[in-house]
Design a protein that fits this description.
Blueprint lengths: L2 H27 L7 H4 L1 E2 L2 E2 H39 L13 H75 L7 H27 L9 H15 L3 E6 L6 H22 L3 E9 L2 E8 L14 H12 L3 E7 L3 E9 L10
Parallel strand pairs: 3-4
Antiparallel strand pairs: 1-2, 4-5, 5-7, 6-7
Length: 349
C-alpha cells in the first residue's frame, strides 16, 4: 500500500469522526424537535443529514490526498538518495526534505555516502599503488635478467666470436693467396660472417643492457655511449654536441632514438663512419645521425620494421618529427627535430 493510499484511508476515518462531531455540534446548537427535521432542514438546498457526511468525506479525502502527496515526496527523496548510494554515486543535487526528522535521516545518508566515497577512493588508490608496485618489481626483475643475459653473452659468445675473428684474420694473413684460390675466398667469407656476427652481438648487447641517463645530461649520455662504441667497433665514430638544457622526458626519448639508430647501423649498414650531431637552432633541437653504409630504400622498408617504427613513435611523443634519407651504397641520414617549449614543466621554464 502506497503512502498516498494509506493517508486517504486514514482521512476517511478522520472524515467519519469529523461528521460525527459536526452533527453533534449542529444538534446541540440547533436542537431538533423531531428526527424528521434532519431531512427538512437543508444547507445549500441539500439536506443536512446528507450534506454533513458528504462534506466531511470530501474534506477528508482532499486533506488526505495532499498529506499523502507530501509524504510521498519526502519518502521519494530518501529513496532516491539510497538508490544513488546503492549504485556507488555521490549524493549531489538532491532536494532536501522539509521535515526535520527526515532531514536528519537524509543527513545521515549523506554522511554514509561520503564515507563510502572516501573508502572507494582509498581502495582504488591502494589498488593502483599495488599495480604500480608490481609493475616496478617486474621491470626490476626484467632489468636484472637482461643484465644477466648480457653478461653471459659478453663473457661467452662475444669472447668466442672475438677469438674466432682473430684466428680467421691470422689464417688469412698467413695463407698464400692466389687469384683463383677457392679456399682463400671461402676463408675470407667466413671471416666476414664472423665479423658481422660480432656486430650483431654488439647490437644485441646494446638492446639487452641499454645505457640510461641516470643523473646525466643528454650530452653526457651520448658522449659516454659513443666513446664505448668507438672502443668496440672498427668504424670511425665522430660527434658534435652542443650544451643546452632539455626536459628529462625529451632527453630520454632522444637518447633512446640514438640507441636504436646505433643498433640498426651495427646490424645492417656495414658502415665505416658514424657521425652524431646535437645542436639547438632557434627553437628547435636537432639530432642528426649519419653513416656511410650500404643504405636502403626508405619507401620499400618493411611496414613491420620495429626499430624505425619505435623511433618515429618516440619522436611524435615529444612533439617532434623524424626524417630519414637513405641512398643505396651511399649511406643513411636520420634527423630528428623537436620544438623547445618555453615555460613548460621542465628545465626550460
Amino acid at each position: 500500500m502506497s503512502s498516498t493510499q494509506r493517508q486517504i484511508i486514514w482521512s476517511l476515518w478522520f472524515s467519519f469522526l469529523l461528521a460525527l462531531v459536526i452533527g453533534a455540534v449542529l444538534i446541540y446548537v440547533f436542537p431538533l424537535g423531531d428526527w424528521s427535521e434532519l431531512w427538512t432542514r437543508d444547507f445549500m438546498n441539500i439536506p443536512i443529514v446528507i450534506f454533513v457526511p458528504v462534506f466531511s468525506i470530501a474534506i477528508g479525502i482532499f486533506l488526505g490526498g495532499l498529506s499523502g502527496l507530501f509524504w510521498r515526496k519526502q519518502l521519494h527523496l530518501i529513496e532516491h538518495s539510497l538508490h544513488q548510494l546503492e549504485e556507488g554515486r555521490q549524493i549531489e543535487g538532491t532536494e532536501k526534505p522539509s521535515v526535520s526528522e527526515i532531514q536528519a535521516i537524509a543527513s545521515r545518508i549523506d554522511k554514509i555516502g561520503k564515507q563510502m566515497s572516501e573508502q572507494a577512493k582509498l581502495s582504488q588508490r591502494l589498488a593502483t599503488e599495488k599495480v604500480e608496485d608490481q609493475e616496478a618489481r617486474i621491470q626490476e626483475i626484467i632489468e636484472q635478467e637482461r643484465n644477466r643475459l648480457a653478461r653471459e653473452l659478453h663473457d661467452s659468445v662475444s669472447q668466442q666470436l672475438f677469438a674466432a675473428s682473430m684466428m680467421m684474420s691470422a689464417i688469412n694473413e698467413t695463407k698464400v693467396q692466389t687469384e683463383n684460390d677457392r679456399e682463400t675466398k671461402q676463408l675470407k667469407l667466413v671471416e666476414d660472417m664472423i665479423h658481422q656476427s660480432q656486430l650483431e652481438m654488439r647490437a644485441l648487447l646494446l638492446h639487452l643492457r641499454p645505457v640510461a641517463l641516470k643523473n646525466k645530461s643528454l650530452q653526457e649520455g651520448i658522449e659516454e655511449l659513443l666513446i664505448e662504441l668507438s672502443q668496440k667497433v672498427t668504424m670511425e665514430v665522430k660527434w658534435k654536441l652542443e650544451e643546452f638544457p632539455l626536459d628529462k622526458g625529451v632527453e630520454d626519448h632522444l637518447f633512446r632514438i640514438l640507441q636504436e639508430s646505433v643498433s640498426n647501423t651495427l646490424r645492417h649498414s656495414k658502415a665505416t663512419q658514424f657521425e652524431v650531431l646535437l645542436v639547438k637552432r632557434d627553437d628547435l633541437v636537432i639530432l642528426r645521425i649519419v653513416d656511410d653504409g650500404i643504405g636502403f630504400e626508405v619507401n620499400e622498408m618493411k611496414a613491420g620494421s620495429y626499430g624505425m617504427q619505435n623511433m618515429r613513435e618516440r619522436a611524435v611523443e615529444i612533439g617532434g618529427t623524424l626524417k630519414v634519407v637513405s641512398v643505396k651504397n651511399k649511406g643513411t641520414r636520420l634527423e630528428v627535430k623537436v620544438p623547445v617549449i618555453i615555460n613548460g614543466d621542465g628545465v626550460n621554464d
